[in-house]
Amino acid sequence: MHATICLPTYNERENLERMVEALSGVLREGDRILVIDDGSPDGTGEIADRLAKERPYVGVLHRQVKEGLGPAYIAGFRHALAEGAELVLEMDCDFSHDPADVPRLIAEAEAGADLVIGSRYVPGGTIPNWGVVRRAISAGGNLYARLILGSRIRDLTGGFKCFRRTVLETINLDAIDARGYAFQIENAYRTARAGFRVTEIPIAFVDREEGKSKMSRTIVAEAFWYVPLLRLRAIARQL
């Protein structure tokens, strides 16, 4: 099953070329990397164009306006599907997600899972360099989302995923409004509610070493109020 790895970027010039090089070592014949750049002012888009010229398995999708993680991924998903991808992956470009874990996600999808989540919160999953406060905030956010949504998924906010194309064709990408990390909650929740098989495999999630984090108070606030809205929408559809 041919896979496309979607890499959303905004000011990732320190990481992009290293990430593409690392992924090159785990790609199979026919697999691709799609860089989705939201008009980075630091030259990330130009680096992506050069890499695409040098490496035939690299593609670039330029977006002129920074709209957030959700719209960037949705544009990337549509592009990957139009190119015939059978598996579509999402992962961070800052090495928070280990490129060496990509084959593990693909293998689970090829074994029958519809959505594979690289999870910090199943046995074996770790966050090795986080402090106690940050761990508590992250775990609390996941618990909050799980309780309100009634979800069994342990890492609803995780951003290292592999979808079968039929999932993305079914869950109505047009209806996803989340722009920040609430996007991760919504796509996992919609997938599970649609009856698809969701599998979580343990990963180690580490902090970026280069570049600046995109996390902000606005992103956290969106996730807080958006989760109850998701639940209300689900209830309304059942009435």
Tags for this model:
Nucleotide-diphossugar_trans; 42% helix; globular; single chain; 7-stranded mixed beta sheet; alpha/beta; Spore Coat Polysaccharide Biosynthesis Protein SpsA, Chain A
Structure description:
The protein has a single domain (3-238), classed as Spore Coat Polysaccharide Biosynthesis Protein SpsA, Chain A (Alpha-Beta Complex). Helix 5 (132-149) runs parallel beside helix 8 and helix 7 runs parallel beside helix 8 (217-238). The protein is of the alpha/beta class. It has eight helices and seven strands; from the N terminus they run E-H-E-H-E-H-E-H-E-H-E-H-H-E-H. Strand 2 (32-37), helix 2 (44-54) and strand 3 (58-62) form a beta-alpha-beta unit. The longest helix is centred in the C-terminal third of the chain and has 22 residues, at 217-238. The chain is 42% helix and 15% strand.
